[in-house]
Write a structure and sequence with these properties.
With about 150 residues, this protein is mainly beta. The chain contains 1 helix and 8 strands. It is globular, with a radius of gyration of 17 Å. Bound molecules: zinc ion. The site of zinc ion (ZN) has 7 residues, from loops.
Length: about 150
């Protein structure tokens, strides 16, 4: 049996469209000039309905994580151990997600660890944003490159 896939709600349609193209789009309040998450048709801080969507970097850091050694749903039994996390994006919002490409070992993962988004295609319609350890620390990409 297949695992259940997310069913996009109308207010989150833009988020899931972005994921399908392997882009992360987050709602942005024009009045607060700040991002918020989860998607809602109005800003949860000022209740203004002037909301846009902006593509974000996909970079962030682990805020909190959990290593799961027992599946609470039998459909995930083959996946244990796996890691769930709350990731804080550079843009300040937090997403609940899975951590991939990492040893499911609490000694190898820590809060503040830099991560970047990757997408897992579940179907033609749905891709899941997950996060992996960032390839390099911010700014490191340009170090050692002759100018
Ligand atoms: Zn606002």
């Amino acid at each position: 049996m297949d695992k259940p896939a997310p069913v996009p709600m109308p207010e989150a349609q833009r988020f899931w469209e972005g994921c399908r193209r392997h882009q992360l789009w987050i709602p942005y309040c024009n009045r607060c000039q700040d991002f918020f998450f989860y998607p809602r048709p109005f800003c949860p801080r000022c209740f203004d309905w002037s909301v846009d969507w902006r593509q974000v970097s996909g970079r962030g850091q682990i805020y909190a994580f959990a290593v799961h050694f027992r599946a609470t749903n039998p459909l995930w039994a083959d996946d244990v151990p796996y890691v769930t996390a709350i990731v804080q994006l550079e843009e300040g919002v937090r997403l609940f997600t899975h951590l991939v490409e990492v040893e499911p070992d609490p000694q190898q993962i820590h809060s503040g660890m830099p991560v970047e988004v990757v997408f897992e295609d579940l179907s033609e319609e749905v891709s899941l944003p997950k996060f992996r350890p960032a390839a390099s620390a911010p700014g490191a990409a340009t170090e050692g490159v002759p100018s």
